[in-house]
Specification:
5 helices
């Protein structure tokens, strides 16, 4: 990757991290009002968890597009994208995600899938709170991983 491409990727990833942080701010606001007796607030919190994972997945797609941009199994591409980002691809790019980050992202991905298809299933407060904890755990890890990824790329210039 040449210097111009790296500068563009860095700018795109940093902008996406800002967008992700904005979703976190909204998520925190929604989480304050969520309670077992307030299903509309739980749904609002769940919607923001859905948005959070989608924004993170967009960041992963930016890296894939900049390097390999090929996911062959379209039935598993969401899962495969996370797994692929844990790989250090010699001669192409370092790993973007640590295994701990990937594990949490798989949890968020599974919830997003459930949320998208749960139109007849009520959201359980406890389940949403559990997923919220995964979201809070992944926050510093994702920042750490992106920073490390960019530093490794820059060192290889």
């Amino acid at each position: 990757m040449d210097k111009t491409q790296l500068s563009l990727l860095r700018a795109e990833l940093n902008r996406q991290l800002e967008r992700i942080e904005s979703v976190y701010v909204t998520l925190e606001e929604r989480a304050q009002h969520a309670a077992p007796e307030a299903p509309a607030h739980v749904e609002s919190e769940a919607y923001q968890l859905h948005n959070l994972y989608s924004a993170i997945e967009d960041l992963l797609q930016m890296v894939a597009a900049a390097f390999e941009n090929s996911v062959t199994d379209l039935s598993r591409w969401h899962s495969q994208l996370i797994d692929r980002m844990t790989l250090d691809v010699e001669g192409m790019r370092p790993a973007l995600l640590g295994e701990d980050t990937a594990r949490l992202l798989h949890e968020l991905r599974a919830f997003r899938h459930f949320f998208r298809h749960a139109y007849v299933t009520p959201l359980e407060y406890e389940r949403v709170q559990s997923v919220l904890e995964y979201a809070y755990e992944v926050r510093p890890l994702l920042k750490r991983d992106v920073k490390s990824f960019l530093e490794t790329l820059e060192a290889g210039e």
